[in-house]
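#struct-help
A.M.: can someone run this one for me? Single chain, 136 residues.
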Amino acid sequence: MSRKLLLNIVAGLIGFVLTFLANNGQNLLGTSLIRGMYGFIIWFVLAFFLRWVLGFIIGKEASDPEAGLFDNGESLGGKLDISTPEEDQELKDLLTPKREAVSEETGGFTPLQPPKLVSMKDPEELAKAVRHLKEE
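D.P.: on it. Structure tokens below:
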């Protein structure tokens, strides 16, 4: 008998015992045994399903029954190989300013002079406009 099947049988027996003990006091012996068998089948299937889900999550292949949960980094996600292209020269060009560009930028610089948004109207006219808007 394989180890996986033995694990499912043990889980089924635990389900049988728990179900049988829970039903023995309230039901007849035959009914408790039948319900215990149902508990065995359900726990057996649940153990199989749980092992399958955990195997899928871990990434263990179903075709290799002898492989353990951890096989020294040979499973999926065990290795990480990242390499980036060499960009040393491009990075140096970006960090060091060019002599010609520096001289052109400093000579042609003119500060921004935005137009002023100040109204040249008489303060009395503005006060009349605000009073008129307030009345409406």
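A.M.: thanks! Residues 26 and 41 are 21 Å apart (CA to CA).
D.P.: also worth noting: The radius of gyration is 41 Å.
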